[in-house]
Amino acid sequence: MAYERIIITGNLGGEPDIRMAGEQKVANFNIAVNRKRGDQQQTLWIRCAAWNGRAELAEKYLKKGSRVLIEGSGLRVNAYLDKNGKPQASLEMNVDQLQFLDNKPADDGGNADSEDPDAIPF
């Protein structure tokens, strides 16, 4: 039996692209995953597809720069030619779980420092 599970954490590179595929809603977005290799930082871009309910969540809550944790499957390489005719490749995956890692905005429009300083944080 084979098992495939991909877990990534990163930031959205742009606004989600929302479309209908027949009767199903799909949100496509790119996640930048940063990693260090010695003194250099590398960015790996992964194209994600969220369907139906997860697409609605992405449409409602995600924006460029949003930090997310994605659990997914169906990792594949898409080979293509760029506008100059050079071969390129991109990683793509389906979103099975989506977690928002950004701080929740304050209800009063203020920042987190405006909370009661005597409140217990746990």
Structure described in brief:
It is built from 1 helix and 6 strands. It is mostly beta strands and 122 residues long.
Number of strands: 6
Going by CATH, the homologous superfamily would be Nucleic acid-binding proteins
Biggest sheet architecture: 5 strands, mixed, barrel
Mean pLDDT: 87
Structural class, judged by helices and strands? mainly beta
Order of helices and strands: EEEEHEE
Radius of gyration, in angstroms, nearest whole number: 18 Å
Write up this protein.
- The chain has 122 residues and is mainly beta.
- The chain has one domain (13-104): OB fold (Dihydrolipoamide Acetyltransferase, E2P).
- The protein has 1 helix and 6 strands.
- The protein has one helix spanning 53-61; strands at residues 6-12, 17-21, 24-37, 40-51, 67-81, 87-100.
- It has a 5-stranded mixed beta barrel.
- Strand 3 and strand 4 (40-51) form a beta hairpin.
- Residues 108-119 have low confidence and may be disordered.
SSE topology:
Elements: E1 6-12, E2 17-21, E3 24-37, E4 40-51, H1 53-61, E5 67-81, E6 87-100
Which terms would index this structure?
OB fold (Dihydrolipoamide Acetyltransferase, E2P), mainly beta, 122 residues, five-stranded mixed beta barrel
